[in-house]
Amino acid sequence: AQSVTQLGSHVSVSEGALVLLRCNYSSSVPPYLFWYVQYPNQGLQLLLKYTSAATLVKGINGFEAEFKKSETSFHLTKPSAHMSDAAEYFCAVSDRDGGFKTIFGAGTRLFVKA
Amino acid sequence: GAGVSQTPSNKVTEKGKYVELRCDPISGHTALYWYRQSLGQGPEFLIYFQGTGAADDSGLPNDRFFAVRPEGSVSTLKIQRTERGDSAVYLCASSASGRAAGELFFGEGSRLTVL
C-alpha cells in the first residue's frame, strides 16, 4: 500500500526566505509523486509532478521538488517566499502501474511573515 | 465545461437522511475521483472510475456510501442514512489519459453538514 508523510503540519517563513516543505513516501512500485496547493477558499491545484523522467522537477510559481529514491523523499522548495505563497500544500503518491489511485498526505500549512 | 463542477456547494441535512452529491468532470477526462476532506486533514480517497466502471472503491468507508458514473461522464456520490461523522467536504477530481494521466483537476467541493 502507498502512503505519504508530510513532516510539519505548519511551517512559517519570512518573506524572501527559503521555503522547504518535507514529504516522504512509501510505495512498493515506482511511484508518480505530486505536490498540490490549496489557496484559501479555492480548490486544490497541481503544482508539479514527478514521473521518473528527471529527478528535479520544476513547477509553477517558482517551486521545485527533488525525487530522492534512497531517502524516499520528495521535498518541495522555493528559494524566496512571497506573501502570495501562503496556502496549504499537499504531497501525493500515485501507483502508475496499478492505475492512478492517488493518496494524499495530511498537508502542511505555509505561513509567510512580512 | 471549463473545470470540474460540483453541486450542491453546500448541503445541510439531518441525521438519517439520504444525500446525493453530483460531479461534472472536465469534458474528455476518462478518470474521475471522489475524496473526502475533513478540517485540517488531507483529502481521503474514496473511489475512482475509469470510464463507467469503478476501478477502485477501496476507500468507501461502509455500505452506506455508493457512487455511480453510468455514462462515463457525470458521477453521483450517494450517502444513505447519513451520520454526523459524514460531515466533511466531498471533493471530486478528474484526469485525462496519456501524458497527463494522474494529474488531478479538482472541483471546489460539496460541503456536507449532518445535524
Question: What is the element layout, followed by pairings?
Answer:
The complex is a heterodimer of chains A (114) and B (115).
Chain A: E1 3-7, E2 10-14, E3 19-26, E4 31-38, E5 45-50, E6 56-58, E7 64-68, E8 73-78, E9 87-95, E10 102-104, E11 108-113
Parallel strand pairs in A: 2-11
Antiparallel strand pairs in A: 1-3, 3-8, 4-5, 4-9, 6-7, 7-8, 9-10, 9-11
Chain B: E1 5-7, E2 10-13, E3 19-24, E4 31-37, E5 44-50, E6 53-56, E7 65-68, E8 75-79, E9 88-95, E10 105-106, E11 110-114
Describe the structure.
- The complex is a heterodimer of chains A (about 110) and B (about 120).
- With about 110 residues, chain A is mainly β.
- Chain A has strands at about 5, 10-15, 20-25, 30-40, 45-50, 55-60, 65-70, 75-80, 85-95, 100-105, 110-114.
- Chain A contains no helices and eleven strands.
- Chain B is mostly beta strands and about 120 residues long.
- Chain B is built from no helices and eleven strands.
- In chain B, strands 2, 4, 5, 6, 9, 10 and 11 form a seven-stranded mixed sheet that branches.
- In chain B, strand 5 (about 45-50) and strand 6 form a beta hairpin.
- The model of chain B has no long low-confidence stretch (mean pLDDT about 95).
- The chains are: A mainly beta (about 110), B mainly beta (about 120).
- The interface of A and B includes residues 34, 44, 45, 94 and 103 of A.
Beta strand % of chain A: over 45%
Low-confidence spans of chain A: none
- If you average the pLDDT of chain A, what whole number results? 92
Count of DSSP strands of chain B: 11
Q: Give the overall silhouette of chain A.
A: globular
Q: Radius of gyration of chain A, rounded?
A: 14 Å
- Arithmetic mean of pLDDT of chain B: 93
Summarize the structure.
By secondary structure, chain A is mostly beta strands.
Could you name the key traits of this structure?
heterodimer, A: 114 residues, mainly beta, six-stranded mixed sheet, 56% strand, B: 115 residues, seven-stranded mixed sheet, four-stranded antiparallel sheet, 48% strand
